[in-house]
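Journal club prep, notes for RB
We'll compare a predicted complex against what the paper describes. Inputs for the nicotinamide-adenine-dinucleotide case:
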Amino acid sequence: MKTQAILKAHASNPTPALKAESLEANPWHQAMAQLDRAGAKMKADSFVLERLRHCKRILTVSIPVRMDDGSLKVFEGYRIQHNIDRGPAKGGIRYHPQVSLDEVKALAFWMTMKCAVVNLPYGGAKGGIICDPKTMSMGELERMTRRYTSEISIIIGPEKDIPAPDVNTNEQVMSWIMDTFSMTVGYSCPGVVTGKPIEAGGSLGRKEATGRGVFYVTRELAQAQGRDLKQMTVAVQGFGNVGSNAANIFHQYGSKVVAVSDVSGGLYNPEGLNIPDILAYSAKHKTIADYPKADHVPVESFLEIPCDILIPAAMENQITSANASRIKAKYIVEGANGPTSGEADRILHDRGIIVIPDILANSGGVTVSYFEWVQDIQAYFWNEDDVNRRLQEIITKAFHEIYETSQREKVDLRMAAFMVGLNRLAKTVKLRGTFP
Ligand code: NAD
C-alpha cells in the first residue's frame, strides 16, 4: 500500500499523520494494517471493522510522585480499553521510557484479538506509564504505582477491567495495585488484578504461563509438521518473565537452547546453554550480559543467530524489513506482542519461515490470568497440575483451529488467527447491536 493510501485509510483514527519512514515502527499503524488485511480477506462487515478501529475508552492520567530526594516528579500514564463486547477488559500494565499512546492502543487491540482467539470471556485493554523503572527506587515505584492505580480506579475493577503484569511490572507491582484498589473500595478485592503472588490471591502456574503457552504451541507446530522438538535448537530474545520461563521449559523438555539475550547483551553456545545456571546468575546480577560461560553476541544481531526456533520475547518491532531477510530460524514464535512488522511478515512468508503470531503464541499469560480471576471470584484455588492441564487444553485447541484455518484458506498463521478471532468477535458485536 502506498503511504498516501495508508494515511488516508487511517484518517479516521486519532493518530497524528505519520511520516512514511515511521509507519513500520508505529505499533498502532501495524495493528490496524493487520486488521485491514484480515478484514479484506474475510470480507468482514465494515461496521465491525470500523468499531475495532476505535478504542472504547482512553484515559490519560498525570501521576505526581514524591521522589526520594524530596523533589516532585509528574509521570504520564494511560489505561485504554479497546473493546468490551465479549466481557470485561483485560490487559497488562507496562513501565517503560518508550510507552506511548499509540503503543498502548495497539497492545489493547491485540488483547481484544487474543482473548477472542483463545475464546476467553474478555475484551482487550492495556496500560502504561512513561518512566524508567531501572532508575527508580522501590519506594518511588510503589508511590508511582499506588497513585496510578488511584487515578485509573474509576475505570478498573473485577467486573470492568482487570490489569496484569507486562514489561517491567511484576508480582510486587500487582500486589500494590490490589492493595490500593482494595483500600479505595473498602474491602479486599483480589479479582481486580492478576499476576499476583500466591500469598496475595495469585494462581499457581501464572508466572510461568506465558512461556509455557509458547512451548505448547511450538510443540504442536513441530508435531503437525513431523518435526522432533527435542532435535531442534532454540534462541530466545528477552530474559524477563516470558523469555526466561520459555527458555527454561524448552530446556527441561530437552530442546537445545543455544542463545538467550536481555537488553544488555546476548549469550550463545551452539552446544546448548545451561539455562538453570543462567537463571541463577540472572537472579543474582539482574542481567545476563556478563555471564561468563558462553560466547557473547551483540543485541543488534542477536535475531540473526543460527537456530531452528526463534522466540522474540522482549519488545515490539524487532523483526523488520531491515533484518527479516537475515533471520535463519525456521519457526518464529512470538512471545512478545507485536515483534514482527507487516513488511517483515511478507519477507518471512516468502522465505518459508513459519510465524506463530503473538495473539496465539503468548496467550498462555492471559489464559492463566483468567484462571486466577475465576479462582479469586470463587475463593477456591486449584492445584498447579489443574492449571497447566487446562492451559494446555485451551491453547492447543486454539492452535489446531488456527492451523487448520491456515491450511484450508492457504494463509499464514497470523492471518488465520485474525480470521478466527475476528469471526468470533464479529458475531458478538452484531448480536449485541448498537446502543441506543
Ligand atoms: P519483562 O520486563 O519481564 O522482560 C523483558 C525482557 O526483555 C528483559 O529481559 C529485558 O532486558 C529484555 N529486553 C528489552 N529490550 C530488549 C532488546 N532490545 N533486546 C533484547 N532484550 C530486550 O517483560 P515480559 O513480561 O517478559 O514481557 C515481554 C514481552 O512479552 C512483551 O512484549 C509483553 O507485552 C509480552 N507478553 C508478556 C506477558 C506476561 O505474562 N508477562 C504475556 C503476554 C505477552
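Talking point for the session: The chain is about 45% helix and 15% strand.
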